[in-house]
Amino acid sequence: MPRYYFDIHDGPEIASDEDGLELPNVAAACEEAARSLGGLAKDLIEVHKGAGRQLAIEVRDYEGPVLYLRVTFEARRHKH
After folding, report:
1. Other Cβ atoms within 10 Å of 71 Cβ, number
2. Extents of the domains making up the chain
């Protein structure tokens, strides 16, 4: 089973995944990355530090990058 690595990009900071996960295919890696990215975004909202932040996960296998998922968190308050 192929091993996929999930590198987290938080603005200019990158946390490289050295362990990876064994998953059956790229579709499963995409699902895992999307769930992880959603969890990271949720954490930013809960600590109120997300406004203006971009988070991304780059998925790679032994040959190199295979996927890149990104979410931008933006919050605007409108005056009434």
Report:
1. 16
2. 3-73
